[in-house]
Structure formats: C-alpha cells, structure tokens
# Entry
Amino acid sequence: QVQLVESGGGLVQAGGSLNLSCAASVSIFTLGWHRQGPGKERELVASVSSGGSIYYADSVKGRFTISRDNAKNTLYLQMNSLKPEDTAMYYCGGRHTADNEYRYWGQGTQVTVSS
# Structure
C-alpha cells in the first residue's frame, strides 16, 4: 500500500517562509504538490519527475521551489514570500508514468498565511 505523509505546514505571516515535506513509502515517478483553498478547486502547484522535470504554476513561480530526494523518496516544497492567497490545504500527490491523473494522495497539511 502506497503512503504519502506530508509535514511542515503551519501559520505564518505574509512575507514569511515554510518548507513542506512529503515522505513516500515507495519510489514514484512524478510527485507534485497540490493545494485547495477555501471554496476553491484543488490545483497543481508544482511537480517534479524522478528524472528532474519540473513544473510550476504561474502563481508560485519565483517564490516556491520544489525538490526531491530520490534516495529517501521524499518531496519538498520551499515556500518563500508567502501571501494570504497561498492559504490552503496542501496535498502531496504521486503518479506513475502511465497514469493520466495523480493516483496517490497524502492526508494534507494546512498552510495559513496571515496578512
């Protein structure tokens, strides 16, 4: 059974930083951070493949940095210059090469940015 466990969320003031981590129980081709804010749909924030291909949503480019440690099956998201609109539940997701959608999900970690 594949498990993804997130950590690192919390409450921070606007302009502050947080670093999220996601530990996977197995090696997964693509790992991504998604978020769902109040009254909003879940959106992909950033993703990285095992080969190093990276995607960022326009809203976080230049502020967030995604990385992974393949030896530890761990995904990270360094979030800087946080804004109140970044407030959301952040989920770690994983999918294999043949998957069209994310197959595996963590339980989520809450990020709250106060103004």
